[in-house]
Design goal:
By secondary structure, this protein is of the alpha+beta class. The chain is 37% helix and 21% strand. The longest helix has 15 residues, at 205-219. The chain starts with a strand and ends in a 14-residue tail after the last strand. 51% of the residues are buried. Residues 1-24 have low confidence and may be disordered. GO terms for molecular function: amine transmembrane transporter activity; carnitine transmembrane transporter activity. It holds the Pfam family OpuAC.
């Protein structure tokens, strides 16, 4: 799953720096963590859900007064994280689960969020346009039955990162290697002859993984599936307007709340397809800090 973290893509978290009077909350040159990162959170794309939520956190927490979010891209954020961890330097990133960075760097941790700005456990839901059940009942049934785990999604993202293979290639391999799980999604679904289905997704790897896994699963039953990546705001608009058939991308109850509530009477929510997602502030384990409130204002 924007100048919000949303993703989520997605789950998510921030790697932050910290400061305090205790010498354990300083770097080797006696700078506070906050000072060492120049009161800057390394973020992802502008408009992403987690980016928006992070801006709200800066407004709500006195400890983040004067801080900024450096917005660029998920790839740039991950690159900065890799460099910081390699050199054991402090860093603040917007982060989330599921995401391959947690598979690559398992010793990262979320900072406590006493104000609940980032919410608790998130779930990723499936939404479909009104009329889909009547017009394409077999597609509706697959979408209603689709569910998988955080580890499934993170595994696809991490394999894509490590091998250099595109997400859609890895997703196809995952479907081939996990036919037992796929069969539960296809249970009771009749064969069709080229019925077209458009899945609307965000462009982040987490949602690309779920959309392509469902695409290849549905193709086993004869569907002709297209995956269309768009900005998260357009995801909800397109399903509400009937321009797309379904989306597996909405993160709730916090990450995409603004967009969800703006259109919730105009689509059908089929419930969670993944439980256990998370967004928030995250730091490498070697940073001796536990809470957002351990940071210091600029």
């Amino acid at each position: 799953m924007r100048k919000f973290l949303i993703g989520f893509g997605l789950i998510g978290a921030l790697v932050l720096s910290a400061c305090g009077d205790d010498s354990s909350e300083t770097t080797n040159d006696n700078k506070s963590y906050s000072e060492a990162v120049d009161y800057t959170i390394t973020g992802i794309e502008p408009g992403a859900g987690i980016s928006v939520t992070t801006e709200k956190a800066i407004e709500e927490y006195d400890s983040l007064s004067g801080w900024t979010v450096e917005l660029s891209s998920t790839a740039a954020m991950a690159s900065e994280l890799d460099k910081a961890i390699e050199n054991e330097e402090p860093i603040i990133i917007t982060g989330w689960n599921p995401h391959w960075t947690f598979a690559k760097h398992p010793d990262m941790k979320y900072l406590e969020d006493p104000k609940g700005i980032y919410g608790g456990e998130e779930e990723i839901r499936t939404i479909v346009r009104k009329g889909l059940e009547e017009e394409k009942p077999e597609a509706y049934k697959v979408l209603e039955q689709f569910s998988w785990d955080v580890e499934d999604m993170e595994g696809i993202m991490y394999e894509s990162k490590e091998t250099g293979d595109d997400i859609d290639v890895v997703a196809q391999r995952w479907v081939e290697d996990n036919q037992d799980k796929v069969d539960t999604w296809l249970d009771g679904v009749n064969e069709v002859d080229g019925v077209k289905v458009e899945l609307v997704s965000t462009p982040w790897d987490s949602e690309r993984a779920s959309a392509n896994v469902v695409k290849f699963a549905m193709e086993q039953k004869g569907f002709d599936v297209t995956v269309t990546p768009v900005d998260v705001a357009v995801v909800f608009e397109s399903i509400a307007n009937g321009d797309g058939d379904a989306s597996l991308a909405p993160w709730m109850p916090i990450t995409h709340k603004e967009f969800y509530e703006g259109y919730q009477d105009e689509f059908i929510d089929l419930g969670a397809n993944l439980i256990g997602a998370k967004i928030g502030l995250v730091v490498p384990a070697y940073m001796d800090i536990d809470s957002i409130e351990d940071l210091e204002p600029k």
